[in-house]
Amino acid sequence: MRIFLIAVLMSFVGGALLLLGPIGGIIAFGIVTALLIELLIILKDVEFRVSRLGPKRDKVKEFVEEILLKKDDVDLN
Question: Helix/strand/coil (H, E, C) string of the chain?
Answer without folding.
Answer: CHHHHHHHHHHHHHHHHHHCCHHHHHHHHHHHHHHHHHHHHHHHHHHHHHHHHCCCCCHHHHHHHHHHHHHHHCCCC
